Amino acid sequence: MDLMMRLKGGQAFKAISDEFHAREQMLGQDGLPLADFVEIMLKGLPKAKSGADAYDTISGLIDLFNDIDINGDGTLELSEFTSYCVDAGMVATRVKVAPLKYQYIKNKEFVDRTTEGSGIEKIKWCPVLKRALVVETKANSVKIYTSDFKQFHQVFATSVNLPSAQVADLDDFSRQTAFTTDADLLVQDAEFITQCKLLVIATSNLTLAFYDVDHYSCAMETQTTVSQTMLRWCGGASVLATTGNNHVVSLWRVAADKVCLVKTLAAHHDVVLDVLPIREYDVILTCDIKRYIYMWDIQDFRSRGHLVGHTHGVRQMVFSSVNDMLLTAGFDFDAFGWDVSSKQVVMTLSGHRAPLVGIQLARFHTERAVTADVDGHFKVWNIHRLNGSSAQLLETISNVTRFCPRSFVTLSPRRDIVAGSSVLHMFESIKIQKHDEIPLRAFYHHGSNLFIGVTETCVNLWDGTTGALLEEFTGRIAAIQYDSINKLIVVSTFPSTRDRDDDEYGTGGIYVFDDSTIGECDLLRSLTNVPVETSSFSYNASLVATVASDAAVHLWDFETLQLRCVCTHPTSLGLHVVAFWDPYPVLVAADNAGNVLFFPTASSQSSRPDGGVLHCLANAHVAAAEGEAS
């Protein structure tokens, strides 16, 4: 990269591009070999002052050639060179990118003293239990970590009903003792079954052992015909998916005291690497090391087709319900976003220069995708469908030396990343943009000791004890209402005034948050691309009213956010205030001329589908002034 910064003047890139094309025409091929690339680049660099400088420059250009030649064909194409420059930030693009509010930084205070083996094979995070499990290479135990990774349980692979190790501090890890007698019993994989509060461990002796998650004592076990190397709990189908080297996916029904095999899926011809249920489409997806992705019905497990797009094996799949998109990553350098209903690739996450380890979702004010490659580079992507066919790269994390991750997870609903190579590494999402807006309104919830602060552009969730910012939801806020009975927060936003390149939501919208869980404020449902200037909420009518510049009141069903009716008045000059007159089924609105309008909320259900006015209190002063003027 230092060599690239030494190019002479702003015309150096254009000169190199022209020389590339001329040399390709002379050679009669696409791309240049190493010698031609070095010769062209030397013309654009300052002349070496000594033989040692020339040697260092040529060595650097050879290394640069090998770094840029991502397809390994021994020639360097201009597109590869340009992509490298854009990825390095050396060529200006026309994409307008908003300044980052968050940045991933390696947590240097976190030091992994628990990993014993040659490395970490698998990391899984269970947001329901707020626990993470780690499977090490050739280990005879599974480590269960708390959400801060400061404490852990160690569950040993054993066919004997022995208790597991007790909770241990990291400093006490050296005093942990293994009381399993099965020294050669190795853990292949492990998975939490949240529905039954069980932990299942697949071992090398063809056994699936189930442990309760409270005391980690063995509750039951079952035998398999081959060693199961991959376990996935499919919550939408209530089945446990397992697979081994026979390439067959086995589906198991699991109860508190019983496990039985219900179906086998035998379409794959190589090792299956991941299984993903998608409740929204009633399908289960399986992928293998041969690039194939198969779809199965979630009810009767019949085949529902396959997805074609990868050229190499697929390692991991996740589904973004917010963006209605399936995301897949594998041994390709690119990840893909799929429309499940059409089975087509709708987005490409392009920018990595090595095979991918996996892909995860992270919740900021909306869902982002996080990818990692085998060279230790992480990338954060904006996967909103407004970006078109290419995801927007927001951030690259590559500041860890000698780091080759094998697995990683995002700790939802937080944004932190935990990755495993020879040891565990933790990356924290730090807010780097200061909060400099004046709060418009604030709420305090004594049960969870949380503050909700509202500004023009965001809703912030603050810890009442430490004052730390826990979560931020953005969008120009028009109004906020609190439903104390159901403990719900209803937020409506203004239409966006930002440029499209800087816009993540398009226009305004309605967002419903749930604050019933202590320490969290989850987004329940949302309705985007809805113009909103002001709004109101009624618990009795179960309606949300919004007003836009069209001088009409839109009534939305609170449970489904479907439009119930539109209330209009022909003489209205633009509404700017709206409120429900609870407990009566009446909505009151006022326009810019000072007229007060009464609309029936019951019209959204039956009698008056046109949303007609019940009564109008006209502003007599305005009417008199208009009469005198005429």
From TrEMBL:
<keyword id="KW-0677">Repeat</keyword>
<feature type="repeat" description="WD">
    <location>
        <begin position="307"/>
        <end position="348"/>
    </location>
</feature>
<dbReference type="InterPro" id="IPR002048">
    <property type="entry name" value="EF_hand_dom"/>
</dbReference>
<keyword id="KW-0853">WD repeat</keyword>
<keyword id="KW-0106">Calcium</keyword>
<dbReference type="Pfam" id="PF00400">
    <property type="entry name" value="WD40"/>
</dbReference>
<dbReference type="InterPro" id="IPR001680">
    <property type="entry name" value="WD40_rpt"/>
</dbReference>
<dbReference type="InterPro" id="IPR015943">
    <property type="entry name" value="WD40/YVTN_repeat-like_dom_sf"/>
</dbReference>
<dbReference type="InterPro" id="IPR036322">
    <property type="entry name" value="WD40_repeat_dom_sf"/>
</dbReference>
<dbReference type="InterPro" id="IPR011992">
    <property type="entry name" value="EF-hand-dom_pair"/>
</dbReference>
<dbReference type="GO" id="GO:0005509">
    <property type="term" value="F:calcium ion binding"/>
</dbReference>
<dbReference type="InterPro" id="IPR019775">
    <property type="entry name" value="WD40_repeat_CS"/>
</dbReference>
<dbReference type="InterPro" id="IPR018247">
    <property type="entry name" value="EF_Hand_1_Ca_BS"/>
</dbReference>
<feature type="domain" description="EF-hand">
    <location>
        <begin position="56"/>
        <end position="91"/>
    </location>
</feature>
<protein>
    <recommendedName>
        <fullName>EF-hand domain-containing protein</fullName>
    </recommendedName>
</protein>
